[in-house]
Prior knowledge:
The chain is an alpha/beta fold and 689 residues long. It folds into three domains: 4-244, 3-Layer(aba) Sandwich (Rossmann fold); 251-299 and 412-476 and 590-685, FAD/NAD(P)-binding domain (3-Layer(bba) Sandwich), CATH 3.50.50.60; 341-405 and 478-585, D-Amino Acid Oxidase, subunit A, domain 2 (D-Amino Acid Oxidase, Chain A, domain 2, 2-Layer Sandwich). Helix content is 26%, strand content 26%. The protein contains 18 helices and 32 strands. The strands form six sheets. Strands 15, 16, 17, 24, 25, 26, 27, 28, 29 and 30 form a ten-stranded mixed β-sheet that branches. An eight-stranded mixed β-sheet has the order 6-7-5-4-8-9-11-10, with helices on both faces. It has a six-stranded mixed β-sheet with strand order 19-13-12-23-32-31. Helix 8 packs parallel to helix 16. The longest helix is centred in the middle third of the chain and has 17 residues, at 317-333. It is globular, with a radius of gyration of 26 Å.
Amino acid sequence: MASAQDKKLQSPTLKWKDGITPESIEFGDIYFNPTDGLAESRYVFIEGIGESKIWENAPCLVVGETGFGTGLNFLNLWKEWNASSNPDQRLHFLSVEAFPLKTEDIRKALSAWPELSEYMEKLCISYPEIHPGLHRISFDEGRVTLTLLFGSAAEMFPQIQGYVDAWFLDGFAPSQNKSMWTEDLYNEIARLSKPDAKLATFTAAGHVRRGLEAAGFKMSKRPGFGKKRECLSGTFNSEILKNSSNKTPWYAPTQPLSTGKKVALIGGGIAAFMTSHALNARGFETHIYEAAPEAASVGSGNLIGLVQPRLTAADSLDGKFNASAFLHAVRHYSGITGSLKQNVWLPKRGVLQLARTEDESFRFQSLIDAARLPANIMQFVSAAKASEIAKTTIEQDALYFPYAGCVSPRDWVISAAQNHKNFHSNHLIQRIEKLETGWRLHGLADNKKFTSEDYAAIILANGPYADQLWTDWDVPLHAKRGQVVHYKATEKSRKLNCSIAFEGYISPAANITTNQQDIPLHVAGASYANFDKNPPVEKNADEVADWRHLREQDRLDIKENVSKFLPHLDLEEELNTFSGRAGLRATVPDHLAIVGPLPDYEFFEEAYGDLHHGKPSHRYPEGQYHEGLYCLTGLGSRGVQTSPLLAEVLADLMTGEPCALPKDQLIALHPARFQIRKLKRPPHLRDEN
């Protein structure tokens, strides 16, 4: 069966009854009661799950829904929850939609209820592009989270990891939408339900009631709304839930961490600060430890960072993740969702990715044909059109990403550090210790020994050095040295209207504050070379020189690269080199990040040592992990783009909320994936790379 990601989503064809009530032509059904849909939504769903009683003592209420439609139920619940919840409580709404409405149709449909206008406007501003997969949106500084699943319920819910407190079973009537109301759906709802989870639905169809009861819900009938005779509500009884087959027990979710705990993050780069914001929004107290004397002096310190997707022609997990991460980053850096409250894009948005060969031009066209991104997000343009966009001569066809662009990682991290009350610079962590009470850090603070307070959890977010603090580490983490060059902008180069990517890249000119001066400059890069994090002392001193030192050969290579693809910028004559910067990237062989809990490898060896025999997965126990120990590393050269989404994912994994990525991508990013791959090989082949 093709996955939801393989299909192009279609918005529904609507007709409007009396000009105000939307009806789906495909399903021959209306989206809500034309007389009083708002009151029906409240009665059937909000009252059906118990109203405010269900959230009065819940740090986070998670509600799942089948059929997002116009968003009426979400907005109605948000309004009711907002009126009676406490400031430290959160709402997480998980909803699936196979035929996502366009924003203008949502506005028109909900315009009948002025009392929802404030919430509707927030939704419409943040509403994602219509693209298959999961879309994470945050409102009200993280107090309200919406995870939208664009695709069919049958395909999307099996990909969800997390737990739900209550369910709204909405969507078109079972008689009109038989493919959704199935035993498989009810079993997935049961799998995701917490003990005693509530459920409400508008239908009283017998086969729906029987199907939910078979899945583990105790169902009862309620009087229906208006002319409808009956509806259903229910409570999940986990004791009678059938054992579901877990095909990957070694990746089983870990025990959620209670809200309000103290968490330490090691590393002062963009990954650490993004994760800190995500956890702070969920009620955790975070402390960040950075070995350098100030934020961004080592990690995430580039003056300009390029946000551009790395897509694959094949329908790979790598390509899907990067597409999702890019779409999320565009919304995040625009201040639409996440921790940012304002647009932080540098001027002159857009990225042109040049086709370096004719074969690459064909590959670009295949990306367009496969709709790896929506048509307004990614366009194939001729050399002439590319020249028009860039305002300089381009000699190659290109992919154009109008919403991509540049941000300043250095400025963002410095600002985040200044506004973080528990940022500890000049703290070199040398050892982490597991205690009965949690975790403790040991190291040097301003070159003096120190021992930290106890933390409920530790997150290793210190790039290529993450593997040095935990001896039980079996992840192939490598350091790659990268160097960028800064060029002072000239009168001609300032005309460059967007970023250009080729074998490297160059940014348009931006005013950057450095040495207390605002200087218009371009950033070009980047070199990509192996670097030994811990070189043996017997090596020649020149070979183990500090990676921070700029190298003349790298500068020449970058200049040659820019001149090759953009000769009309007259780089040699008109752009004067203005220093540069070098940094270390953390990479892994499969080019995907590492995010999640760190496994107990001793347990893995004992429990899964015979995986190569191909025994059924249900014969294996669930994986064991070091309680309270997580990592976020291996972001490579895409950390600015991927860290906003990865931070959400890690926070989800730690709290047990529905994850912002589907299961197959979570597995592809999981810290235990390398160990499992090794254990699936015969013992005599396990030491091979």
